[in-house]
C-alpha cells in the first residue's frame, strides 16, 4: 500500500480530548466559532472568524453536512449521532481518552452516551488539580485531604481511569520542585482559609504532583502535563517544558511515564526532552485544529530530534466533531508530508513509525 | 483580479517607521550599508556587507536608480524627491506613521518636508520615554513632572499624534508591573539626582506606562511596544512579549489597543497573544527589510494562530527609501506566498484579509 | 562551476569535534547507535533506533562499507584507517579541531594517531573547566590554583592549542557575570572542601571565564561556548545564548573572539547576536548529524540575520567517522538549498560566502 493510502486508513487513538456537547444546542454556529479559538467568550467573535481555524471548521461542517447550503444548524439527537459517526469514521478514529476536568456548557458528560454518539471506545483521564480542589472542600486537615486525594489516585485505574493529568501550567507554571510536608501543610491551610476553591499555590501543586508520582508509577499509567499553548489563563512563558527538568530528572528514570501535551511553541524543546529522557512522550495537539496552516511545519519541527516512538497523535478537541475532524485531517496530511520527504528510511519502517504515532504507542501507554 | 496582482496594487499604510535623511549626504553607500543592519556603527562594515540585507538594499538602489552603474551616489534635493516618490509609488505606499523619537544623523525632521519628498501622508507617533526624559530635565518634583507628562499625553492627539510608543524593552524589558506612587516617586528622584538623562528604572517605566494607559484609552489611539529584535542595546531575553502578560491582562479588556512591534524571534508568541487577548495587534516589521530570506517563513509563523484582523504591515525603515522598498517588496511577496497556499478560504475572503493587513486595520486603529 | 559541484568539492575545516574511538571495539553497532543520540546509555536503545539519526548513520555506514550486507562489524586497524580516510576524503574534510575534554570509552587520544587514521590535520582545543578541575586537585589555595590555571591558559597556544572552550552551560547556564576575587575565593574553598571534583559553582565559573578572557585575547584565539542542544545534563532553559549578553557586551568590543557552538533551538537568537556584536561567531553543529530532517530549516533560520562571515561549519562528531560524514553531507545539502534560493546575490558572491562558512573563517580564527 502506498504511503498516502496507508496514512489515510490508519486508525487513530486520540489520547487527549474533551467532552462533546449536545447537537440541539441553539447557536451552533456561535459555539463552533468559539471552540475554533482558545480565546474566552469575551473575545470578539468577528476576530475569531478572521482566523483560519474558523474557516477550516466551517469547511469541515459543510463537507459532512447533509444540507450543504445550511450546514451550521442544530441537529436532533439521531441526526447528531449519525453526523458524529460519519466524521469519526471518515478519519478512522478508534478511541478517545477524555480529560473530564474541563466541562463545556451543554456537555454530554455521560461517557456511555459519548460512546454511543461517536461509535468509539471512550476512556477517561484523571485531572489532578480538579480532584485536589474537591477534596479540599470536603476535608478539614492537610492529613485527611492528602489521604483522600492520594488514595483516590492510588485506585484510579480500578475506577476506570487510564491516565492522569496535571494543569500546573495553568496555575503557576512548570517549575515543579520537591517540597517538604511542612511547607505543603502551611500552603494547604492558607488555601483552605482563603475561601477560594481554585488551587494555585506553587508549593502545594509541586507537593501534590511530586508525591503522587509513586502512585502513578505503581499503576503503570502515564502522567500528562499541559505544556505551552492554551487559553489566556496560562502564563506561556512559565509553560516552557524545559522548566520541568528537575521533575523529569527525578521521576522519569524511576519509571514515571510523562506525556507533554500541546507544547507549541515549545515543540522543539519537547522533542529535545523526549530525545534525552527515558519514559518521556509528547504531542502537538491543539495546534492541529486551531492552527491549520501551522501543522506541517510544527510536526516537522517536533520530530527533528525526537524518536518516532515518543510522539503521539491527539486533537485536544471538544464540543463538536468538526474539531476532532480538522485535527485528524491536518495531522494525517502533515504525517504524509513529513514521511514522504524522508529519504533515509525504507517504506516499511515509515509505516512502523506512523502506526506508533497514530495509535500503537498510546495504546501501549494507556491501555496496556 | 488574481491574487498576485491584487497584492501588488494593494495600498500600504506603514504604521511604524522613522525619519528619512537628506539625499545629498556624503558617503551614501556607507549610510545605506549601516541602516541595512541593527548593529551600531562600531560593527565592522565588512561583516554588514556580508549580510543578505545589504545585497537586497543594493539591488533595490540599482533597480530604481537612473544610472545603473553608478547607483549609490548622493543626490540633490530634486533628484532625491523624484527617487523617493518613484520607490514609494512603486509599492503603493499611502501613509507613513513616524516614530519621531529616533533621529538619525542628517534626518529630515520636518514632517511637511517628508510629505513633499515622499509624496505620502505622514503622521507622528509619541514616544513616551523620550518625552518623560525631556520633562525630567525641566521639572524638579515628581508631581510636576508627572503632571506635565500626563497632560502632554492626554492632549497628544490634539497635538497631531496618532499613537503612542513605549521602548521599555530597550530600557529593562517587558516585565511591566503595577507600581505605587511612593515607589515611583523615589525612583524619579533617584533618576533626577543621578545626572543621567536616560530613563531606565524598571519601577518608574512601569509606573509611567501603566498610568498613562487611561489617557491613551481616552483618546482611542494605540500604544505600541518595541518587542523582540532590535539593536544590541536591547536585552532580547527580556523582550519576550509573553512577559507583558499582566499589563495586557489588565489593560486590553479595558479597551487599551496595544500593538506589538517587530516581535522576531517571538512572532509566534505574539501571534498567540493576539489570538487570546482583545485589542491586541502586532507586526513583524524590521525583519522584512533586514532579514530578506526570513520573511516568508516569519510571516507564515506569525499567522499560525493570530486573526488576520490583528496583523499589520510595517517596515520600521528609516534613512533611505530603499529600506522601505525592500520591506514592502518582501512583505508583499510573503503575503502572496502565504495566501496562495491556503486551501480553506475563497479568494474573496483572502482579499478582505490582505486589505486589512496592508492598510485597513492600521487606518481604523490610528486614523479613525 | 555550478553551485552544487562547487559546494560538493569545497574543503571543510571542522572547528568543533571530538575523539574517534578504535575500529576493533566490540559491539560497533551499539556504539554507533549510542552516538547517534545525545541521550546517555541508560536511554533505551530501541528508542534511539526509532530516531532518524540512527537511520542516517546506518545508511552512511552501508554506503561506505566494503561489505554492503554486513556493514556494522568491527574492523582491524588497517581497514579502519582506510574506511576513515574514504569518508573524510569523500566530503573533503581538511582539518579537525578536537575538544579534548570529552573522552569516549576506547578513544584514540593520541592526536598523531588520529591524524594518521583520518589523513587530516588535527589540532586541539583547551576546555577550561576540565583544566580548572585538574588544578583544583593539585593546588591548595585559591591564589596558587588561579596562578596555575591562568598561566596554563596564557601559554596554551605555545602548547599547541588553537582555541578555548567553556562548558558553563553544562554546569549552571550562561548567565555569566563579573565576580570579585573575594567571592571567587570563597567559592573555590567551598568547592575544594566539598570533595566533589566537578566544578559547578556559578560564581566561580563566571570568575574563571571572565578573568581568563584577557589571556585569550592576548593570544588572538577564539573562546567557544557550549550553547543550547546537548545531553540531558545541560539545563537547556539556561543555555539560551541571550543570557551571555553582559559577557558579550563587555568582551567582544575588547577583541575577544567568541564562538557559540550548537545553539539549537536558539540558532535564531545566536544569529541575531552575531548580527549586532563584533567578534561573535556561531555554528549549528550537532543538529547536523543528530537531526538530519532539521538541517535545511535550521541553517535557513540561523542565517536570517547573521552575516555569512560569522557562521561556521562544525560537526560536533565523535566516536566513528559516519557521524562526521552525516554532518558534512547534511550541511552541504543545506548550504546548496539555502544559496540556490537567494535571488539577490550573484553566483560569485555566493561562492565567497560558502568558502568562508566551510573553512576560511575558521582558518582565520584558529589557524591565523
UniProtKB/TrEMBL annotation, chains A, B, C:
Domain Amidohydrolase-related: 199-366
Sorted UniProt keywords: Hydrolase
Record-linked InterPro entries: Amidohydro-rel, Metal_Hydrolase
Coiled-coil regions, chain positions: none
GO MF entry, a single one: hydrolase activity
Pfam families: Amidohydro_2 (PF04909)
Origin superkingdom: Bacteria
Protein name: Metal-dependent hydrolase of the TIM-barrel fold protein
Amino acid at each position: 500500500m502506498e504511503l498516502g493510502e496507508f496514512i489515510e486508513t490508519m486508525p487513530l487513538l486520540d489520547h487527549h480530548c474533551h467532552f462533546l456537547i449536545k447537537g440541539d444546542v441553539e447557536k451552533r454556529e456561535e459555539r463552533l466559532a468559539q471552540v475554533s479559538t482558545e480565546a474566552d467568550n469575551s473575545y470578539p467573535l468577528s476576530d475569531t472568524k478572521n482566523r483560519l481555524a474558523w474557516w477550516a471548521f466551517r469547511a469541515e461542517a459543510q463537507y459532512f453536512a447533509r444540507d450543504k447550503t445550511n450546514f451550521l444548524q442544530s441537529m436532533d439527537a439521531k441526526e447528531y449521532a449519525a453526523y458524529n459517526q460519519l466524521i469519526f469514521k471518515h478519519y478512522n478514529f478508534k478511541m478517545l481518552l477524555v480529560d473530564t476536568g474541563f466541562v463545556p456548557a451543554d456537555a454530554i458528560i455521560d461517557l456511555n452516551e459519548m460512546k454511543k454518539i461517536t461509535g468509539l471506545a471512550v476512556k477517561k483521564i484523571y485531572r489532578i488539580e480538579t480532584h485536589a480542589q474537591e477534596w479540599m472542600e470536603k476535608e478539614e486537615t492537610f492529613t485527611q485531604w492528602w489521604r483522600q486525594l492520594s488514595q483516590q489516585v492510588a485506585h484510579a485505574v480500578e475506577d476506570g481511569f487510564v491516565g492522569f493529568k496535571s494543569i500546573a501550567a495553568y496555575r503557576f507554571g512548570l517549575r515543579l520542585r520537591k517540597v517538604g510536608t511542612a511547607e505543603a501543610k502551611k500552603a494547604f491551610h492558607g488555601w483552605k482559609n482563603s475561601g477560594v476553591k481554585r488551587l494555585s499555590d506553587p508549593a502545594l501543586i509541586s507537593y501534590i504532583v511530586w508525591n503522587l508520582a509513586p502512585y502513578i508509577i505503581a499503576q503503570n499509567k502515564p502522567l500528562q502535563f499541559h505544556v505551552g499553548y492554551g487559553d489566556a489563563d496560562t502564563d506561556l512563558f512559565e509553560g516552557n517544558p524545559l522548566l520541568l527538568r528537575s521533575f523529569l530528572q527525578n521521576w522519569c528514570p524511576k519509571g514515571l511515564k510523562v506525556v507533554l501535551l500541546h507544547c507549541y511553541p515549545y515543540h522543539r524543546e519537547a522533542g529535545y526532552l523526549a530525545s534525552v529522557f527515558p519514559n518521556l512522550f509528547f504531542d502537538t495537539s491543539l495546534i492541529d485544529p486551531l492552527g491549520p496552516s501551522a501543522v506541517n511545519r510544527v510536526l516537522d519541527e517536533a520530530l527533528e530530534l525526537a524518536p518516532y516512538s515518543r510522539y503521539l497523535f491527539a486533537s485536544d478537541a471538544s464540543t463538536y466533531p468538526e474539531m476532532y475532524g480538522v485535527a485528524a485531517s491536518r495531522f494525517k496530511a502533515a504525517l504524509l508530508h513529513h514521511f514522504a520527504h524522508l529519504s533515509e528510511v525504507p517504506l516499511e519502517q515509515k509505516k512502523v513509525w506512523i502506526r506508533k504515532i497514530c495509535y500503537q504507542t498510546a495504546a501501549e501507554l494507556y491501555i496496556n
